[in-house]
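Hi D.,

Good news: the full-assembly prediction came through. Inputs first.
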Amino acid sequence: MNPAPSTTRRATRRRRPVNRLPLWVYALLGVMAFVSVFPLYWMFVVASTDSATAYSLPPHVVPGGNFFHLAGLVFDIVPFVQALLNSVAVSTSIGVGQALLCALAGFAFAKLRFPGRNTLFLIVVLTMTVPAQLAVIPQYLIVSKLGWVDTLQAVIVPGLVSAFGIFWMRQHISSTIDDELMHAARVDGATTWQIFWRIAFPLVRPAAFVLGLFGFVNAWNDFLWPFIVLKSPERYTVQIAIKALQNSRDIDLGLAMSGSFLATVPVLVLFVFVGRRLVQGIMEGAFKG
Amino acid sequence: MTTVLRPAAAAKATGQPTRKRRVQQGLRERLAPYAYIAPFFLLFFIFGLFPLLFTFYIALFDWNPIGEREFVGLANFSELLDDPRFWGALRNTFSIWLLSTVPQLLLALGLAHVLNHVRLRAAAFFRMSVLVPYVTSVAATTIVFAQLFDRDYGMLNWFLGLLGFQHIDFTASVWGSHVMIAAMIAWRWTGYNTLLYLASLQAVPRDLYEAAAVDGANSWKQFRHITIPALRPIIVFTVVTSTIYGLQIFTEPLLANPVGGLTCGAARQCQTLTLFLYEQGFGRFSFGYGAAVGVALFVVVVIVAAINYLLVTRIRSERP
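Then the structure:
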């Protein structure tokens, strides 16, 4: 369909600017950006006024000065500080755990030869296509047999590994680390562990970082599993605290929105700092985990 | 005496122990791969594979959390097939999935095409802004959308009213609640899929677009003849992942209709399969019946995956 442009065409192209974007494209992109960000802004508007204003028509779209009052109420009604700490603990453990454990297993699958390697990897890939949700009842039974119901490790431990994470790290390790380097290190007497820890891991640290970020964000936003295993308010993660707030609110929307906003702020701050790397990570082929 | 002992001592210091250590070292090196994948497989077996298989087992029992269980064979499944709540949940799941996936992926395609443009200004800004929904939590999103779609005071209905339309009771009606939930899902994932598409597009030589423009192809033609063919494999991928994600929707219907709770409304108008599973398993504590719902969900996923696969191979054979 598209042969190489002839020299004359190339010359014409250089002379006039082609393919300039029309203004309406920017208008549409602006609308998209607005739609993407508006619900978050609206969350803050309602969180900073009272619910009476939230229900006023035409809508009141300027933030009020009530945010700290409502936020204070949120902290009074549910143990929100505790919920934030729980979420930080859970998400950080899962992010770090996934980055390390998946890098380790990904390294083995990418660079080491051992019997059963292909079969085991196939199992990993196949489980990526099965929704985890359908097995929640036995998962709950197992966690309760272990005596972990209503503990944070019930959320953390099952989240430490992900099939997607192994897949992702294996891809990066096999494309980043060449066998020559491994061989040279081996000749110098390095053990497999030293090769992983001193050579392979430092080289794929950016990929592991992005994977850890994904793990963190997904764990922070996870709802179903924490909702099932965490029972007492002092164990709640922020998402479950929001739900509790919604239950006790008596249709006090301002309060629910403040809680939602407070639960979103930490991830937003993280996003401001590492957003570019996250975008880059997704663009390099991170898929839904 | 020392001369007699020396060779043995020397051997002890260098030869034999070294060989022994070398054997140990070799064994350790050979076992190392298994040690590296062990943490994954241990956790994966306990919390992933085993529960999956166990679901099939539990589904054959009348089982409650106190531990009373009675083997009932396939009774749970025949009950499930006669249960209008199950068929309703299945219908709702598919309806919400289609309503969210189709616009989401089409929009992502168009956006990726535009964002990939050579002369786009502020590209980084637009890319970042479309990803904001992805980092926003589902629970928070749901509460905001439920308010924006509110019947009496929601901004959307207010806007529709300005245009002269009647207010729509989104939470109470079947289609309304499906549209509302689909909007939440599409809002969350469109930017993410856009970036996936954009990643593939970066591999397409830019000269192709410029040359096409010189040849007089407008943006639509470029989209049709360059962007879409380049993206075919990743489109298949996103269709599959959106399907898997779409079939397990839970948080959105649970929180979108706070009055409705686990049934998502009095008429179960937006109860999805996962929500129905939760209601049976943890709302009514009938684990056996809930597990049967899980098995049904598994069957649905397999069928949909097979259909996806057939469609994909068909597309491939039609357009070599």
